Every structure is written in C-alpha cells, then in structure tokens.
Amino acid sequence: MRFRQERSTTLDLALALQRELTGRAGSWEPNFLPRPITPEADLFRAGLKSWAGAAGSGLPAFLAAARRPEDLRTLVDDDRLRPGTELVTTALTAAAPTLTDALPLFDEVRKQAAVEVNDFLAPDRYLAPLCAALGTVDTGRTLDLHLVPLAPYPPATGFLTAAGKVTGVYVDCRRFRGPTLADAVLTMLGWAQLKSGNIPEGHLSTELVRRMPGGAPYQRRLRIILTKILVEVTAGQLVRAVDSAHRPCADVLGTKWRYPRLHAVAERHWSRYLDGDTDRAEALTAMARDLTAHSPRWFVDHVDPSSLAADFYLLEWLTAAGDRTAGARLFRWLPHLCAELAGHLDNVIGNELGHYERARTQQHPQELADFITEINQGDSRVTWQRLRRELGHGRALQLATEAFAGPGIEFGGEAWAPVAAMVRRYVRHELPDRVFVDQCFTLEHNNGSLFDKYHDTATMREVLDAQAATDLDKLLTHASAEVRELWHGQHRISAEHHHPMWLGPPSTASTVPTVPTAPPEPGIDQSGWGGAGLPGNTPGTVGCGDRSDPSAYDPSRDPLRDSPVRVRHTVARRPYSSSLRIYRAVTAVLHTEHGDIHLTLRPDEAPYTVDNFVGLATGSRTWTDPLTGTTGEGGFYDGTDFHRRVPGFVVQGGDRLGTGHGSAGYRIPDEIHPERDFARPFQLAMANLGRDSTGSQFFITLAPAPHLDGHYTIFGEVTDAPSENVVSEIAGSPTAVRLHRVTVSTA
Questions:
Q1: CA–CA separation, 268 and 233 (whole Å)
Q2: How far is CA 323 from each of CA 317, 336, 516, rounded to the nearest angstrom?
Q3: 3-state SS string over 260-281?
C-alpha cells in the first residue's frame, strides 16, 4: 500500500474546527475562534455525531474532495449523511473567515513535513517488511495522505472513508515532525492495510484469532489493543532502521504506559521477529502462550498505582522489622520500580512542557526562552526526548525545572517544578532508589496529578493518607497477594514471639530473622528508561499493580469473562490552589459607560472561581499586567473594555489587552456544576481557551445557549431587569464599552 500526498482546504478547515471544538486544544496552544463558540460554528459537533452512524470512526472522503464548504451538499451521495452534511456546511461557513486566515501560517511546516515523509518512507524501504509483518499483500493500492496543520488531539490522525472503505489518511504535521511523523504515517498505513478487506492466509487478525480464540468482550478487546501495539511496534522499528535515535510512538505517545503488561509481552516476542532472530509464526505462538496464561483483563485493565505504593511501604516496613524474605523481594523489585516511575515521569514532564506555547518568556534568560520555544515545535513529548538527549539529562531537567517555576507559573507549573527537580537529582545519583520512590509518592500526595495521565488514581489519596497515618491495615487492603502473605507470615512470627501463652507454642523459627547487609543499590541507566518493573510480573506478585487474588485472573475461571469491558477514560487533573477564601454570599456591580450591572455570584457552586473573580476585582489577588509583564496594582478589571459584543449571544470582558487573548498571569481549573446550564439568559460565566484554562475573562449571555453547557464555569447571573437592559445595550454597541470598575459585597 503506497501513498500520494494531497491537500484539501475544506478538510483543513473541518479538522481545524473539529480540533477547536472537540480536541485537547487548551490555553497552551493556538486557538483561532473566540470563546465561547458561536451557535452556528458549534453545529459541527452535531454534524459529526450524525455522520458517525454511517461513516464509522472516519470522516467521509467527500470532505476532502470539496473545494469550498458549500460544495459538500452537491458531493454527498449517501442519504444517511445528508442531515449531518447540512450541519457541517453551516458550521464551516460560519467558521471559515477566521480559520482561513490562520491556515497559511503553517504552510512552511507543511512543506517541510512533506519532504521529511518522503525521505523516511521510500516505498522500497517499508512496503515489503510492513506487508510481511501484517500478513497482507501489496495490491498496488494507493491512499491519499493529507498532512494537515491542525487536527484534533488525541490522536491527531484519522481515516477518510467512502462506502465503508479507507480511501485516505490524515496526520497532523504540526504536532508530529521528523521520524515521529514518519512513524505516525506508517502506523496509519499499517492500519489501512489491515482494513483493506483483503484477508489472505497469514493475515494478522486471522492469526491472532486462531491462537487466541473467543468472542467475550475482554478477549476481543485484547486482540484489538494487541493489534494496535504490533502495528505501532512494527512502524517504530522500520523508522528506527533509518534513524537509530528514534523513540517509537508506542513509547513516547503513551500506548506502552497505558498497557504496560500487554506491551511488554508483545514487544518481547515481536521485536525478536522484526530483528530476524525468530520467524513470525514462532513469535505469534510464543506471544499467545504468554497472553493466554492469564485472563485478558490482566493485560488490558489499567495498572493501579495504589497497589504499587502499598507494596513499597509494606515491604519497607517488613524489611525494617527484620523480615529477610521481604528485604530480598524489595531489593530485587526496587530497580524495576524506579525505572518504571522515572520513565513515566519523564514522559509526563515532556507532556507538561507542551503547555507553555503561550508563555511569556521576554523577562527570562535567553537559554530558557529558546528551550521553551524549541520544546513546543511539534509534540512536546517527542521534542523533550530529543532535547534531553542533546543537552544531557541533568541540564535538560534543570531547564525544565526553571520553565515550570518561571513562565510556566501561569499554567500551573508550580506543581511540576518540584517533580522535574526530583527527577534531576535522581538522574545525577543524588537520590537513593528508596528515597526517589518515596518522593514520587509524596509528590503525588501533595500535588495529586503525577500518575493520572496513564493510570487510575481513584484510591491513591486513600493509600497515601494511610501511609502517613501508619494505617497498616488500610495498606494491606491495597497490597498485592504476595505482600499480604509476607505480612501475615511476619505477623504470625512476631505474635508468637511476644505472646506464647496466648497463641500456643512458638514457631520453629526461634528468633525473628534479620536482614543481611545489603549490597549497594544498583544504578539505573536513565538514558534508556523503559519501565521494566510492572510488565514482567504475574498476578499476585510484588509490584504487579493489582490487589486481587491471583485466581481472579485464571482464564478458565474468570468471573468477568463475559462482562462488559470497563474502560477508564484518562482525566488529567490540575491541582487547585490551596489558598481559598470561603464566602457565604457575594454580590457584585459592574460600573460601565452604559450603566450598572448588578450580579449575584454563586460561591457554593464555584468557590474557586468566585474567589478568583473577587480577588481580581478588589486587587486582593496578585495579578500580572499582560501589557507590561509586571505585577499589577489595584483592581484588575478597572478601566478594561467589553471587547466582544455579539447581539443576541454574549458580551465579554476581563482582558486588559482588549484582544481576547490576555489573562491575569495564571490559570485556574474549571468548576462545571452538573445542575447548572445556559437554559436561561443573562448567566455569568468564565471564558476559557480549552479545558482548565480559565483566567480573568468573563461573559454574560443574552439568550439561552445550550451548546455552551458543560464547557464553561457558570458562577453567577444578572439579577434585575435594568441590569439586563444595560447588558443588551452593550451587546449592540458598535464600539468597545468601558468597564470603569467593579464593586463587590461579601458575607
């Protein structure tokens, strides 16, 4: 399967709009449509939903064939797609004037990407080994490849389909660059090969079903994710043949960290085949043998970091109590746990550094400013790996620490500066392994956001609170079966030693065993962080990341074999500020050129947002003037304008720049109340540039706006008719309207 590079303005517009509405475009990335989104542009969501039933997970191919959004109506030939096409056409027409001006900004990026793809992916270099690995044949088919500058993330890639068949793929060439772009393109081509409908003998899907049969939900999910991993591993290996320093997408973009057990089994056997050390059939058979030894749930469910923490602290306690077996198990496990945590945090640091594309670096040293600029060229996780290699681990982590603690403060960097500093000390061998692990869990306890990128942290605080309170019983409920057994064994010995009259004759062990002098803790090669801890473990063993009894993963007696798959959608949190003033009631008055607007705020539903608004209005909260970059004095809102006025929709203010892109020098998380919506007009809400990017800008609606529900924090409303009239007058003003000051009354 070959590809030819194509370009479609309408597809570019559609993906850019989809990214603004549904992707993970946040305050750290360029946003081109003003927030909140207008109702016309928001119709795109409904159009995509309508299309999904007929087009599946891909986008209709005629989207790329249309020269203008208006042409879509004439190109659609499936009646099932017509209602969605009408909505998409209306939305694209509304958004096109703004987005069309933005797309040319990325022309150079697109041209460079086209050259890179051709350099890495010559057909005679990838086609034969890709077909051999996937068990497909080269039919001479050619797919359209669209290198687009703005696509929804994740995954920043996707298919174009017609009549149920894949006709093209698209990849975000702004986010993926160089070998990572080639890896992403090759991964999409591999998937298209498997989806081509031609299933010859040896097709990967057929081989997996033959070796791992079963139609239960978890069995199907295991095969799907395994196929994804094998395609990604194959693509990464082919690109590494051209660039030996390339870090495969399966690792740096997260699949390896979401499914560490499954990825370890797949990589162990599949890499041997790709390296020529075994044939394909033997690799698949060995892989299936390992995977069928346990329930599919063991490989596709998320790892529980609470279990890792419980195992670590209980083994430390047992070792200190003199348990030789526990000490030996801790000694053998600790290097692998360190590698797992270091690799995870390394990936997360790269991810968090990508939040600072909008950071103001003028007041910072040139080296730091250049580092932040460079880290945001493409996907920050990928660029971070390269810069860490080029600058050296210690220097790169020092710059990361300074970036978090300096310009990154506006975007929550204060929570990540100590993480980068800790990893730097570990890399420089200034932290022993045990101290490093303990500090990882301590920072999770304090910040609450280290492990939630890839793992389920629902019970982390419970476990870490138990550790702080020395609640060993609570730790035991989260520990692996092996650690629980070690604990009960030590407890029996201890109890018999101290209470022979109560508990019968003493154990055959006449004294409590002591731990021999431990050899020096082995160092970790940080240049190859790989996560060697979790994947090699089996259910019930130390560090397996699960508290369940091993029998729960017996494939022949799995109680959840036919149950629905439990999928956890990753939710990356941002820690709230610890400084919060609590109010019982708050009212505010906006004194404008057209009169006063009286507001009632809701501190019970949005306490952080109300506290932020009050602090900015009164000047009691420190803020940064976006015009000068210095600390501001007095009320932030004094003398600002209502810079956006849309009659029948919203008025918006709170930006000292007057452009819609300014803030007070920091961001706060959203507080979306489940019972609060925009069904009524004159609601007061905070504007944002994406999830958890609320700052200083606020807006007031003039009509019901249900399309805004769930996307913006509603923290008050206009309280009387005269105030509503003032808001309507401001919305109709042809020029910006001055907000003189804000007065606040609290109780």
A1: 11
A2: 9, 21, 10
A3: HHHHHHHHHHHHHHHCCCCCHH
